Amino acid sequence: MTKQADVVVIGGGITGTAILHELAKYNLRAILVEREPELAAGTTKANSAILHAGFDAPEGSMKARMNVEGNKMYHDLKDELNLEIRWSGSLVAAVDDEQMAVLKDLLKRGKDNDVPGLEIWDGNTVRESEPNVSKDVKGALWAPTAGICWPFGLALAFAENAVINGAEILRECTVTGITVKNHSVTAVETNQGTIETKYVINAAGIHADEISRLAGDDSFYIHPRKGEYILFDKTAQKDLVYCPVFPTPTKMGKGILVCATTHGNVFVGPNAQDMSDDEKENTAVTIPGMDETLEKARRLVPNIPVGATITEFAGVRAVSSTGDFVLGPSAITRGLIQAAGIQSPGLTSAPAIAKYLVDGIASEMSAARKADYKKGRPAQPCFRMLTNADQKALIAKDARYGRVICRCETITEGEILDAIHRPVGARTVDGVKRRTRAGMGRCQGGFCGPRVTQILARELNIPITEVRKEMSKSYMFYDKETQSGGKA
Fold it and tell me: CB–CB of 404/438 below 8 Å?
C-alpha cells in the first residue's frame, strides 16, 4: 500500500482525534494512524475525565493557554457533536491554614489565566454543596466553569465527524519509520505500507518521544507516570460527591480526588507513580496503590463505600521533560509538528491544541476551508433514556432494540449493532463497552460479555477466536486445537 496525504496524524487519542477533526474542516487530505484496533486505547481511556477550569497551570504556559481556550470551546462543541459533558464545577479543598494559603495562590493564578467565576468558600459552604465532604475541610476553591465528561466519547465524536468530512483513519497501523530528506519529512512508513506526506503531527502520547526520534528530533523525552483508580457502583453517589473534589495540588499533580462521572458512577484516584521508561505499557493496579488511593480519598470524604467497588484501573500519563506541553513545529525537522507531553489538562486542552496547530499548517499550505463541511455526526440511540412510547416505536421499527444484551445498563442488541456499524465502528468487546456501556455495570460484563463477543463475530464475519477484548492481541477465546487466539 502506498497512500498520499497532506497531513498524517500519529495517535488516535483525544489529542489526535481533535486534530483530525480540525483538519477535516479544510481542503486537506488527512490520515490518522493508530496502532490499536480501537481509538482512545491509551491515556484517553484511563483518566479523571475532568474538563478543568484552568487555574492550576502556571501563567504564560501552553498548559494554561490551551486549558482555558479548550474549556470555552467545549461549550460549543457539546451541542454540535452531542458530547457527554456535565458542567458541574469543581472544588479544591483545604484542611489547614497552609493549604488555605495555597488556595489563595490558585485563585490569583486562575484570575491571571482569565478563568471566570472563581471563589474561595468556607468549610460550611463547601458542605452545603457537598454534604459528604470531611468536617476537617476548612475551605475550598470553587471553579464553576469546570465539568466532567466521557473522554472516549469525546475522542470518538471528533473521529466520526472527521471521517464524515473525508478524513481517513487507519487502525492497527503501526509506525515503523519516518522518511526525512534534506531535513524535511517526506513519508511515514507503517506496517500497512507507505504514506507520502509533507506534514506529520506527532500525537503519540507516551510514545511521542520515540516518534519524534524517528524523524531525527530528540529535543525532549516522555517520562511515564502511572495513576490508579477505584470505580464505584452508581448506588454509591449518594454517599460521595456530585462534582470533582480535589485536594490541594503538589508537584506530582492535582492529587487523589473524589469525583462523579457523567454516567452516575463515582471514582477515587489517581495516585502518582513515576515509572521507568520500559514501563510505558504498565497499567496494572497494585495493593499498595489501592491502599494509598483509599487513604488519601478518605481525607476528603471519610465514608468511602468500599463494598460498592465494581472495578479498579490505571492509566499512564505522558510527562514531558520540558514541564509543559510540547506544541508546534520541530526546530530540527521541517514538517514535523509536535503535540507531545499532553498530560493534564490535556483532555480539556485538546480542541484548542488542535486549532492552534492546524491553523498554522493551513496558513503555510494556503488551505481553504471546506464549503461543504458537515457539522455533527449521526444520532446515537440510547434505549434506556427514551420514554416508554419512544421505546415501543423504536422496537416497532427494529425488533433488535427489544432484546436487552446488558442487563445492568439496559443496553440492547440494536445499540450494539449501531456501535459496530457507525463511522469508526467498534471492533472489540471494549470498543462496544465504551460506545454503549454494555459491560460497564455492576457485573462488569459477566452476563453480557459472551453475547457481545458473539455479536461481534457475526457482524464482523470473523471466528469467535478472532474477537478481541481491546488491544491487538487480546483475544477473548482460544482454539482448542491450535491452543492460540486469532487466526489458526
Answer: no
Q: Which three cell numbers stand for residue 144?
A: 464553576
Q: Quick one: which of 151, 150, 144 has its CA closest to 90? A: 144
0.90 exceeded by pTM: yes
What is the maximum alpha-carbon separation in the chain? Answer: 67
For residue 228, the model assigns a pLDDT of: 97
Give the span between the Cα atoms of 423 and 156, in whole angstroms.
Answer: 9
Q: What is the pLDDT of residue 1?
A: 81
3-state DSSP of 356-396: HHHHHHHHHHCCCECCCCCCCCCCCCCHHHCCHHHHHHHHH
Rg (CA), the chain: 22
Q: Which residues are catalytic?
A: 52
Which cell numbers hold the place of 25?
474542516
216: which residues sit within 8 A by CB, 6+ positions away?
Answer: 180, 183, 332, 333
**Alpha-carbon distances, residue 344 vs 73, 201, 271 (angstroms):** 17, 20, 13
Residue 318: what residue type? A
Q: Where are the alpha helices (DSSP H) in 215-282?
A: none
Distance in angstroms (rounded) separating the CA atoms of residues 270 and 316: 10
- 433-445 per-position pLDDT tens digit: 999 999 998 899 9
CA distance 211 to 190: 12
C-alpha cell at 353: 491544541
Q: Which phi and psi angles does 355 have, rounded to 5°?
A: -65, -40
User: pLDDT tens digit string along 354-408?
Assistant: 999 999 999 999 999 999 999 999 998 899 999 999 999 999 999 999 999 999 9
Phi-psi region of 472 (alpha: psi -120 to 50; beta: other; left: phi over 0): alpha
Query: Rounded to an integer, what distance in angstroms lies between the CA atom of residue 96 and that of residue 279?
Result: 37
Q: Are 129 and 91 in contact (CB under 8 A)?
A: yes
